[in-house]
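Encode chain A's predicted structure.
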Amino acid sequence: MIGLPAFISSETELKRGVTLLEASAGTGKTFALARIFLRLVAEQGLEVGKILTVTFTSAATEELRDRIRSLLVEAYDTLQKDPRDEEDPTFSMLRYLEGVDVNECIRRIRLAIICFDESIINTIHGFCNRVLTENSFETHSLFEVEVDKAADDLTTEGVEEYWRQKFASVHPVIAAAASTQKVKAKDMAKFFNGLPRTQEYEFGFDQHLDGPKVVEALIHNFELLASSWLSDKEEYVDYVSNCIGKNSRAHKNIDRHVIILNKVLLNNEPSPIGIEILGDIRASSLRPKVAFKDRGKPEFANAVENFWLSLERFGTSVRVDCVSYLETKIGMWKAKRGLLSFDDLLSLTAKAVKNSGVDGDVLRGQLRASFDAALIDEFQDTDPVQFDIFRELFAKTNTHWLYLIGDPKQSIYRFRGADLEAYFDFAKKTKAVKYSLDTNYRTVTPLVESVNAFFDQAESPFLHANLPFASVNPNMGGSADKEKIYLEGGHTKPAFIIRELDCGKEKELSAAEARIAIRKDMATEIHRILQDGSIGEQPVRCQDIAVLVRSNHEAREVWEFFRKQKLPAVVFTDLSLFEAPEARELLWVLEGLINSRSEKAIKRALATGLLGMTGKDFQLWQEQSGEWDKWVGRFRDHYDKWCKQGVYVALRELFRETKAISLNLRRPDGERRVTNFLHLAEVLHQANASNPLSPTSLVVWFRTRIEEKDKSSDEYQLRLESQSESIRILTVHKSKGLEYPIVFLPSLSFKGRTKGGIFSYHKPDGKLVVDLSSTADDEAKEKGQVEQEQEDARVLYVGLTRSASRCYIYHAPTKVSQDLGIPAQVRIMHSWSSQDQNSMDEAEGAEVEGVTDAVNSVREASMGWVSSLGEAAEHQIFSANELPPHATCDFLQNTEKDHTLAAETWNKEVKIPSARIVESFSGLSKQVGFDGRDLDGVSNQKSQATDFFGVEESPIFKFPAGANAGNFMHDLFEHLTFSNSSEWETFISDKLKQHQYDSRKWTTTILGMVSKVMSTELHRGFSLQKLEEHDRLEEMEFHFPMVSGFLPDLTNSLPADGILKRYLTRLNEEDFRRIRTDGYLKGLIDLIFRVNGKYYLLDWKSNKLGAQARGFGQQGVEKEMLTHHYVLQYHFYVVALHRFLRSRMMDYSYERNFGGVYYLFVRGMNPGSKNGIFFDLPDPKTIQVLEDFLIPKK
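Encoded structure for chain A:
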């Protein structure tokens, strides 16, 4: 964009012809496009139906449609009023148009609003589909066709047919060769689907091999190979055993290889595995030790090398032949079945508009008459076929307005066919008038200046002569600077952060180790900014943060890591639903249903995480065969239900009966798992509804989808489990076009790998070449790598420009493989100083596997770069040894006294006993007579509407009891903002709806209860309504080991006057005998809160206690605590919290820092009384004794 004039929406003249707007990130291209549309309507008098607007995705289409419609309405309203000082400049310009009265502008805009449904705002595929269906004669297309997303299925079908025809009865060597990785059917289908579908290309390998001669040569070389093995076997074995490295595959597998080669070559039994291993033992793969460098390679290895070259030629020949076959066959199938792929829409439209015959003339004339203007968004992501369409229709007439809006620096979709060379070629051939959008309005000034400097101080950052970097102007003092500046403690902090991993001088980290270290640091930093940071006046929230990575696989890994660190996160991914582990689990459950006579199949189904049975359950079934018989019967019943009512009904009933949904929701990744299970159930139902299948056939269909990781349908992509209050994790590609306040880029200093061994590059004449890594020469590989590195720089640009307030970029000093090239981030950061650039040049030319420390560390270059930016950027060093926090209890670092936190280290001498069982409190209490019901919602007495004197009780006692009521109460208080009563009514209404209650009936009742709970003083001067968000933590999970048979001895050791002693003495010997678990105790504490430097734990209880207010007095509450084992429960909780605080606070003291336990029976609470409140502060001796009995000693 160097030297390009700025396009000003309110000033630049709208000229007919081709206009190219190059819009850097954040410069408001949608803003500009909408105003061009407005001006074409108001200034030029165009009808909305004659303006074609094309963008990249359906979602972008809807957004653009809304933006344009809103702008038209705003302009119409504004122009009818008197001018204002801060009026949109475009509106002001329309008031004073030369030759067009303002009233005429208003009339045109009003007409556009009325007729807006006639506007053509679509994706390129939608436009092409419209052209084909409305002009069937001129385009020679079918009147009725189906746009088919499942093109891959046709490819698989075609490849299988090709293999049957070509290799069903051939020489054994050919049959074996056709089943290797070189040309295996599955890989051939993947290769074909990876080829450009909408543009012309040529293969970089020989396309004119004589097939019969290639086959003859392969068989001949195999015979020579067999002869060489017979005569040269001992020489080969001696060489491999003594002369090459011990870690080579040939050496490590020598015995196995000899056995296979004897069978293949001596017994003349060629097999795919026998062919595959030859790649490890050919002469070029055998690298001798230094002492044997001058010794010649074995004759057999040389014979293998010749055979391998014949095999590669065979593979090339098969690929070319199969591609030709598939193109013809799939084309015939589509025509016969009335199918078109999305790529076909483009190709057929381009072919039709380029047709030089009469039909082409008619079609071009009709389309040109239909549209006076075309606005093409995201033009950098289009391909040569789309260029052809718009050039033929609008670029050659000089009577149309053709506006192309895009940013070549953001062209990152090569894998989808986007062709940057075609972009430059189009601009050149059409003699487009170029403008730039040169002011970034969405990003704070320090960040804009930092990104400018990042690329501006590098020499040729995008490695392309036609793509220099030009700085954009920040909107100084604009809305971004006023509202989006990142602050800590009220002070502005640097907007651009480089965090470099310090490995120390003694250790060099592998890429895997560096990634883990970065994720640890990233989690720590996110915890910190959530605690200390703000954006403008608003505290940083989880949803303000995005982590951008290279691949879907990495996104999943980061999500898993964050989940373990208790950081709420959600993954935006293109992964197939069938790749999720839940798909395999559900498959096993379905196989258990259809094989209900197989004990193995049913047990495998029950052992899945979905149904959640444990070893304890299996042991019970072994001891009590009747219980197992019940499960067999259940599976048969559900199979019958499947046959009669469908798979969805059968699964729904199975989930309900086994409590699968609630069980899985308790897991840390519960939301993700449940979302996937329910999504899979829907997909199975839809598959069966559209094409009725027997249960067995449906399972086969499901298994095939899993094996192929099918993503042919949008319905097969993973859904989001939740978006609110979660960190966003997504690929850089998926983030394009989006904006986040704070962005972390943890992995752009690592090089991404190319997939499938196929790559492409352009010849000097612009022709696209597709080649194979395994057969391409060095020149072709170098050209492919250059284009890959060019796109890597553009990926980096997209990543750096997603943030509006603050950007973190990580650098890890690891080895960079010469074969993969140097990551753009590393290359650019090193180019900031001439000394580092020289080091880079030396490293790139060195004949080594990796590069030197000059390439690895960017410290000196970045520190110099940072210093040039003043306070806008900062270079920070972090150590690989720094540990992340272990919980989201950020308020532990903000007590009245400035406690220093210290993590408790694991004693390696303590061994974890085998066969441990994780036990929840509810499971433990079942063993002492607790029947497992949700006591939060169950009353021991019949509900009464009035008390003894006939006075009507509070309506809260009419609110239903039961498990759902208990879940509702816990969910309500867990997410309620205690200190903001203005939000309570709406929040309560929403929660009631979520839990399937009538919000109109119960909102007032629940609001009254909440108000009482929040305003009741728990101790002098304190009520929950005064509690701030940063002083509370919900649902803290804990695990700690426990020994069996501890209760009798514990009872004798406790202080005589304590409530725990009284509780335990109520238990009989049978209860003591039942508690024999030797394992781990787990639990969830409803709420931990801090007041005046002390920490309290609180548990919500929704028990009715006889459904009378008098039941909630201190005597009734204490009786409830003892009867339902809550006393034992909260003592376990206290021990867990005590151990947690002690491990985090250097000078922690139970007496000084722990405040006590509250159990709040919320239905009975009332301000001014202690009804419904149970409080206890266990004495330190009790807690110490309990801890000693719970935790095994070394």
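The mean pLDDT is 82.
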